[in-house]
Amino acid sequence: MAPTLRKAVPRILREHRRDVVKSMAAALDDGRDEKLHAARVAIKRLRYNLEFFRSLLAGEAAGALDLLALAQEYLGTISDSDAFERTYLDLLAGIESADPRRTGIEACRLAAHAERRRALESLHALWSRDGDPPYTERLAASISAALASPSLNEEA
Question: pTM of the entire structure?
Fold first, then answer.
């Protein structure tokens, strides 16, 4: 492997990991849609870079990819729920108050809201899991293990 790529892969992955940690902390502290979206984008970038370089990282990237996929799943559920909320509100705005369809739309809206709350709670639990190493430490350890791959450390 070219020496420049051997140097670039660890730098790229570490930078993206720092972005994930920073954006997730901000999103969980704030809870606003735009912060949660930024965290989702940061996780996607790290995950897709790990997948792109996976052939260089052997099987060691699996742990990091699993952690990222789980967080991405929760963030995706939150994003979907937010989109449903906007859609349901638009639908309700165009329906008379006595229209029987309002009941079904309201039920769907409440279900989406409850799903969002569960996903956000799960994301908080994943991030701050008591008793286990915190998410950030597990992610850093997984990436470090992946970067220890012989294909990244062999001489050209």
Answer: 0.85
